[in-house]
Amino acid sequence: MGSLPLGYTAIEGIPQLRQRIAEDYPGSTADDVVVTTGASGGLTALFMALKALKAREVRNNDVVGEASADGQVAVAMARPGYPAYRNLLRSIGCGVVEMPCGMDTRFQPTAPMVEGMLAEHPEVAAVIVTSPANPTGTIIESDELEAIARVCQQRGVILISDEIYHGLEYTDHTCTSAWGMRGDVVEHNVVVVGSFSKFYSMTGWRVGWLLLPPSLRDMVVDIQGNLALCAPAVSQYAALGAFDSEEPQAHVAHYARNRELLSTALEGALPHAPIEGAFYAWVDVSSLTDDSEAWCNELLDRFRIAIAPGIDFDEVDGHRYVRISFCCDTTELGAAMDILAANYLKSTSIKPRLFNTEEHS
């Protein structure tokens, strides 16, 4: 890297990386891409841009469409959902509208749900969907995503598609990028969020990207320039090299083995969302506890097993759920499942020492 310029880059990222990202989205160009300081940095700039644009509209108009006259902006999301969405939105004074999702919809929103929510909440400026999802690991079917995109288009609402777990898929349910629906389905209301942290395992490098319509791009670039100026230069060049690495596919194979192990452990023991993508299982532990946070603390204190309580992702019903991540060492995952089987699942068909971890290593 000695010959590479490692000072500040252009706010929107180095041209080579933007072009390479665009190549993964047919019909896009480097001008559609803004490289960000991780997906979180991109979301922060995006949410701030939505709020700023709404404030500009209110200044220019006494009443704007169906939006509230005071310029209140909200973003809708699924519940359960990634907590940083809520936290970021609330921190900048935006509202959060949650759509409760259950096992009947695989914990994902549907087009009728989105349509009904938008009818009740005219302040919603954007709907964010995540597929595969954190914490549930479920995938939105292509037809359903298209239907959601159409609803958003008809209501003049931005569809934000968080696709940071794309590439981490284990079933016949494959991911579709919302960006590919532009033109035939929708015009200029789709934003895609991407990251090098998950599929490329570049956590800590802090580099992600947004694909943006013209109506949002300049504002997002201006805000990023004030927040962070640019993503780290060294991370951008490293991310460019990641496209040619075979390592990500090896990681996916490892996650797939762990998924099989975890699925075997949970089968017939605890209800859970279909484990279709990402590296999470969303597990109903209401048969074991009515306080998943306390139960998780017990697991950590007694057995040094760390899983996430559902309350982090669902402030209403999360006390019944936990999120188990399987992006860990296979032997450690097998040992943890053995401990759960021996101490909490004795009445189920699972028996201790079910797992021969050598077979999965």
Automatic annotation (TrEMBL):
PANTHER family to which the protein is assigned, alphabetical: AMINOTRANSFERASE, ASPARTATE AMINOTRANSFERASE
Keyword list, A-Z: Aminotransferase, Pyridoxal phosphate, Transferase
Provenance organism: Corynebacterium argentoratense DSM 44202
Leading EC class: transferase
UniProt-recorded name of the protein: Aminotransferase
UniProt lineage: Bacteria, Bacillati, Actinomycetota, Actinomycetes, Mycobacteriales
EC id: 2.6.1.-
Superkingdom classification of source: Bacteria
Cofactor(s) the protein needs: pyridoxal 5'-phosphate
